[in-house]
Specification:
By secondary structure, the chain is of the alpha/beta class. Helices cover 40% and strands 21% of the residues. Strands 1-3-2-4-5 form a five-stranded mixed β-sheet, with helices on both faces. It starts with 10 loop residues before the first helix and ends with a helix.
């Protein structure tokens, strides 16, 4: 079995249980931020709304929220994207966006933070968060 690299990579290690049907759309709407300029290009300058998941490998609640958030983002069929930011790899971004605990999720539109939450939410709460961001 081959490990993918590039824009599809984030889905493989995080969601092995969702292989097969419908993964490609979900993979395309979720990506790992590589560095500050990548964040600028794919999040701040993105015409679409972006949900930014600040997480860490050592964070238990992040492991629960991440896949749950990916699932509800994938359901939006490309109306919203999800950027994953590991705070240990991107401390500068965590500081810039005042992330003091993980998981912290920001909703960004046209480069501005329009909403945020800290901690775990259930799927219904996440869907409401996304609908508000999309304006649905």
């Amino acid at each position: 079995q081959q490990i993918l690299s590039g824009p599809l990579a984030p889905c493989a290690p995080l969601a092995p249980h969702i292989r097969g049907f419908g993964t490609s759309a979900g993979c395309r709407s979720t990506f790992n931020v590589q560095d500050g300029s990548d964040f600028q290009d794919r999040v701040v300058n993105n015409p679409k709304p972006v949900v930014v998941d600040f997480h860490a490998q050592w964070c238990g609640p992040c492991k629960i929220l991440g896949p749950r958030l990916e699932k509800v983002v994938a359901k939006q069929e490309g109306k919203v994207l999800m950027a994953k930011v590991d705070i240990d790899d991107h401390t500068d971004l965590a500081i810039e966006y005042e992330v003091s605990a993980v998981p912290t999720v920001l909703a960004m539109k046209n480069g501005d933070v329009v909403d945020k939450f800290v901690g775990i939410k259930d799927e219904d709460q996440l869907e409401a968060f996304l609908k508000k961001l999309i304006g649905a």
